[in-house]
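[SOLVED] Predicted holo structure with manganese (II) ion

Edit: marking solved, answer below. Original request kept for reference. I posted the sequence and ligand SMILES and asked for the 3D complex as structure tokens.
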Amino acid sequence: MNKAEEDYVKMIYEMAVLTGEPYVKTADLAEQFGYSVQSVNEMIKKLHQKELVDFRPYKGVCLTEGGRREALRMIRAHRLWEVFLSERLGLAWEALHEEAEMLEHATSEAVLERLYDYLGRPAVCNHGNPIPDAEGNIARPASRPLYETHAGDCFRILRVQDYKPLLAYLSQRNIKLHDVLTVHDKDHFGGILTVEHLGLKHAFAKHIAQMVYGEVLSSTRLKK
Amino acid sequence: MNKAEEDYVKMIYEMAVLTGEPYVKTADLAEQFGYSVQSVNEMIKKLHQKELVDFRPYKGVCLTEGGRREALRMIRAHRLWEVFLSERLGLAWEALHEEAEMLEHATSEAVLERLYDYLGRPAVCNHGNPIPDAEGNIARPASRPLYETHAGDCFRILRVQDYKPLLAYLSQRNIKLHDVLTVHDKDHFGGILTVEHLGLKHAFAKHIAQMVYGEVLSSTRLKK
DNA sequence: CCTGTAATTAAGGTATGCCTTAAAACTAGA
DNA sequence: TCTAGTTTTAAGGCATACCTTAATTACAGG
Ligand SMILES: [Mn+2]
Ligand SMILES: [Mn+2]
Ligand SMILES: [Mn+2]
Ligand SMILES: [Mn+2]
């Protein structure tokens, strides 16, 4: 597999996880990559020939077992490099992804395994995304969005979408992974969630609060 | 610069260092890369347009100041990754080069600088090749070949050619950088150099002893 | 069941970096 | 000085991964 193919199987895997649907639409892939639908179709044909994907016309593509294995290898490399870049080199949160996006294609199996041990076999990357082990086992990512909390909830951030503007937005406010937020108010109509963090209040728009995931630790609200 | 261009300027730099001649012949580049002369000519034309090289027909190519800077950046990345892979991940001597050959193209300026500090600003890679600093200053490599020693000399290995079969050959004999060899005998006609290392004797053919560089520590031989 | 929309396929194009074969230009040795 | 051999340039090709435009095919709602 070359860089292009690697990025395709990774993207297919990630979009399937995001939507919960194993089949990913050609048009959605094109949209995500910023490529034309025709280009995506051509690549799908090639991936199919290599038995990395199953293509059902008018339904989408789905990774084969081999494709899934390759996708997990790329995700593993990507996330391990993110840990390295953050923990060891001290790169900023929002810089990790694009560096890892290059390094992931330049990493042999041997380097990957040693890097994994060197970093202490981390379970998640710095955005809270789970890191597959060498056998391709991967934990479920934290899936409860901050937006689904209620006034009074205490919420620990366990995962954030690896989306640069979001990361810049959060780090500008000194909010990091594992931080705890107290939900003050949720304005359903306006879609604004007001939280407290280290004594400061922040108002998050719905689309922001939907990209932050974690767990509710405790709640002062009355259970219905 | 893309991967191909990066490998070209690096190669031009390295061949110029090796030969001592600033101008590198098209045919020699083709030979080293295993490409056709025509392909090399095409790339030279492009590098010239980008003002990375000066091309003198029938003489060869020479890096411009900009080309030299880019070459040193690649060499810096390559050798720093070799240090990382060796010192931190414990990769075998002979595996370093090909891994670094990929990683060097996936490394931003920011990562490079942090990696440099993280590794303690090393002066040389694991083959003894000097690592340029961020400003492009680079030390002269050790240049005295083991083959130019005489019976009785004590010789410390400071640099070896980054050539896989040589590295495998040496590490199989437990010979590493900074080890000291005692020259027992030099057979000029046969070209065999006999040395002692950790109590064991080794016979090195001329072409081997010419790829190992270092310093003579002391000598029992009579000065003429 | 039929038709509009969405998805797929077809056809032809671009840039990159490699290739081969062949002509032209130059250099250097005799 | 002339010519043989080296070097460069020209011409045309191939694979990859992207593109646009234009059929064609299939699904799904009315
Ligand atoms: Mn990422
Ligand atoms: Mn990538
Ligand atoms: Mn090397
Ligand atoms: Mn390289």
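OP edit: The radius of gyration of chain A is 19 Å. Thanks to everyone who chimed in.
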